[in-house]
Write a structure and sequence with these properties.
single chain, alpha+beta, 6-stranded antiparallel β-sheet, 6-stranded mixed β-sheet, 18 helices, rod-shaped
Length: 695
């Protein structure tokens, strides 16, 4: 090798007649090359560099070929000739010398070209020295630097792979990290296969690039003669250094991969908590063998991938368990309800990797009730864990039972609140219960800390319906007896009632009212069919993401199938609640019109109002008003007002200046027939009206 940096030698003209002793002290020999005669004189130290005795050298450069390999001699001759031709004063080069024992050692020479007055080269004087130790040290430094660089690169590979795997939540996420193009480039392999251990067999689950699977090896036993099986069986990496090594150790597999031009391979067991969960094979077409550092890096990568796979498998097991529990707590089927189209949807939360956070306490329910009525429930138990789901399941069941027993919506909600408190759990729940009479379209709604419902009209417009509400369920002990006021709505044919949990509405950084307006806009633009609309709303929630689950219930009232439907409505009227009486009048008027007795709606509303007022004024406690259709020879509408007093009403004659006393007279005059029935510890005053107008 040439040394372009050699400095010019400033030596006396008669050198080397008396060479400087310092050269010998530094193990440097000197030479004097007379270019006119061709003689190449060397001192004793120079002879030692070439490993020649003085009697073995005749002073001619050609005699040095016994020690200088032919190729090295040609290179040195060319170097000297170019220096002379270029007019340089010096040159330098490293070259190899073959010693007596046949070993090659490095030597270094520096020459100074002496010219006469005309510029003609006449003489070259210089030094020659053994450079083996020098180059060995330099080579060692280069090797050390290369090893440091390799270690840094290997550490970087592990860090990048670990960082990518840290975001993998599922097994498929892990597979995607290690099999994509970037992953293969990072690992430096031509192709990759990944297998998971299942019941004593290895099932290949990934390949990269696509098409790397060897036919017949998708599922193999761990006792079969395959490298991946050996890695799992021995819990040790299997390094294959060359094609011959591959063919000798695994003759069954080798013929199937010869087209891939594999030169080496590494099969790594994937071990987590001292238990094998699978194996990974990395195949290379541009390397032979594996240095210790490379093996260490591959083992570290295998360990990182194994830990990520175990974490992903645990996550999926937890998720399957949570979702199974969630689905078990939700209704398996939604009953078919005559007169309505119903769609329900549930979307699990996506909580960014926390195990168990894909489950929540949101639920829906549809409860068929007597008299053509249906109960619709939406609710949300606080929390996102299996405990929230368990509480939700219990609460859903008891709320359904209370509704099926015939309690009014307010009573259903109050009893559910007491039940939740008595569970002795730290959870509360929000809920909205709507009881709809599909024959009349009258909907009675109670709300316990939940968001308001929405109604989509037949023309597509959508409005939020404010519903007076009470406290969330489960807080009865802290705040005393809870009252849940009833709001009465009308749902016309073709209108759709939407109940949902806040996961469909709330968005980070936005107000709830803004979210409700955005939801109303989305509903207005959506399809008419409730199932399509529900699917679109859930799809929008999926795209938005979020860490809250979503429950959704849509109920669309169909047009009545018969012009004279049957029906039954019931309303709880609490004392001291002026709004309750207004809601009851609203319910009665809407039902009577729907049941085909429009000509008598004023009379029926007036009589019912009188009976309810009497019950509230002359008894202690609430009144329950029931309105229903009686079929028979003559179709009739019956109004019943039940209270807790056993005292029977008395007809009185009112004076000219008296305000009270005319109630029963009014009932007697307007109703076709009326009476009183004992009901347990109380009574019910009833009256009936023929559906056709009186003459």
């Amino acid at each position: 090798m040439a040394d372009r940096g050699a400095s010019a030698l400033s030596l006396p003209g008669d050198w080397p007649a008396h060479p400087d002793p310092i050269l010998a002290l530094n193990r440097m020999g000197s030479f004097d090359w007379d270019l006119d005669t061709g003689l190449f004189s060397m001192d004793a130290q120079a002879h030692e560099v070439f490993d020649l005795r003085p009697d073995e050298y005749d002073g001619r450069p050609e005699s040095l070929t016994v020690r200088v390999p032919r190729a090295e001699g040609h290179r040195l001759d060319a170097l000297v000739a170019r220096a002379i031709k270029d007019g340089r004063e010096n040159y330098g080069a490293y070259f190899r010398v073959r010693r007596r024992d046949g070993t090659l050692h490095w030597a270094h020479t520096q020459g100074y070209i002496r010219r006469d007055e005309t510029g003609r080269p006449r003489r070259i004087i210089g030094i020659v020295r053994d450079a083996t130790e020098e180059l060995s040290e330099s080579e060692a430094r280069r090797d050390a630097a290369a090893q440091d660089a390799a270690r840094r690169e290997q550490t970087n590979v592990v860090q990048i792979a670990t960082a990518a795997l840290a975001h993998a939540r599922t097994v498929q996420d892990v597979i995607d990290v290690v099999t994509d193009t970037h992953g293969l480039t990072l690992l430096g392999s031509t192709s990759l296969v990944l297998g998971l251990l299942e019941a004593g067999r290895i099932r290949l689950v990934a390949e990269g690039p696509k098409g790397s699977f060897v036919p017949g090896t998708r599922i193999t036993r761990i006792d079969e003669p395959y490298p991946m099986s050996e890695a799992v069986r021995t819990l040790s990496p299997c390094f294959i250094e060359s094609p011959d090594d591959f063919a000798e150790r695994f003759p069954i597999l080798w013929p199937h991969i010869t087209d891939l031009h594999i030169t080496s391979a590494a099969y790594l067991p994937l071990i987590a908590q001292a238990r094998p969960i699978g194996a990974m094979g990395l195949l290379y077409s541009d390397r032979r063998g594996f240095a210790p550092e490379e093996r260490n890096v591959l083992v570290a990568l295998g360990s990182s991938i194994a830990q990520s796979l175990q974490r992903a498998m645990l996550y999926e097991e937890e998720k399957d368990l949570a979702q199974g529990l969630q689905q078990a707590m939700l209704p398996r089927t939604i009953p078919s309800v005559r007169g309505a189209d119903i769609a329900v949807r549930y979307r699990a939360a996506t909580a960014g990797g926390a195990l168990g956070r894909d489950i929540g306490g949101d639920w829906y329910d549809v409860i068929p009730l007597p008299g053509g009525r249906v109960g619709a429930v939406i609710g949300d138990v606080q929390g996102h864990d299996t405990h929230a789901a368990a509480v939700m399941g219990q609460l859903r069941i008891v709320l359904r039972a209370y509704a099926a027993e015939g309690h009014t919506p307010a009573t259903v909600m109050a009893r559910a609140s007491v039940f939740l408190h008595e569970l002795d759990t730290d959870r509360f729940a929000t809920c909205l219960y709507a009881e709809a009479d599909l024959s009349t379209g009258v909907v009675q709604v109670v709300r316990a800390g939940h968001i308001d419902p929405l109604i989509r009209h037949a023309d597509g417009t959508c409005v939020r319906v404010p519903v007076e509400g009470g406290l969330p369920l489960g807080l009865s002990a802290e705040f005393g007896r809870l009252e849940y006021p009833v709001t009465t709505l009308e749902l016309d044919p073709g209108h759709t009632l939407l109940l949902c949990t806040d996961g469909l509405v709330e968005q980070p950084g936005t107000d709830l009212d803004d979210g409700m307006r955005a939801l109303a806009t989305l509903i207005a633009k959506g399809p008419d069919e409730v199932r399509d609309l529900a699917a679109q709303l859930i799809e929008a929630a999926e795209e938005r993401g979020g860490d809250d689950d979503v429950a959704l219930l849509l109920l669309r009232r169909r047009a009545p199938e018969a012009p004279r439907p049957r029906g039954r409505l019931q309303q709880h009227v609490a004392p001291g609640d002026p709004e309750a009486l207004t809601h009851a009048r609203h319910m009665i008027r809407a039902a009577v019109r729907s049941w085909g007795a429009r000509d008598r709606v004023d009379e029926i509303e007036l009589v019912a109002d009188e009976l309810i007022t009497n019950a509230l004024m002359h008894t202690e406690g609430a009144a329950i008003v029931t309105l229903r259709v009686l079929e028979g020879g003559c179709r009739r509408l019956r109004v019943e007002v039940e209270d807790s007093s056993s005292a029977l009403p008395r007809r009185r004659d009112a004076g000219e200046d008296c305000v009270s006393g005319r109630g029963l007279l009014l009932v007697d005059r307007l109703a076709d027939v009326w009476g009183v029935e004992a009901r347990g510890g109380g009574k019910a005053v009833w009256c009936e009206f023929r559906a056709s107008p009186r003459t």
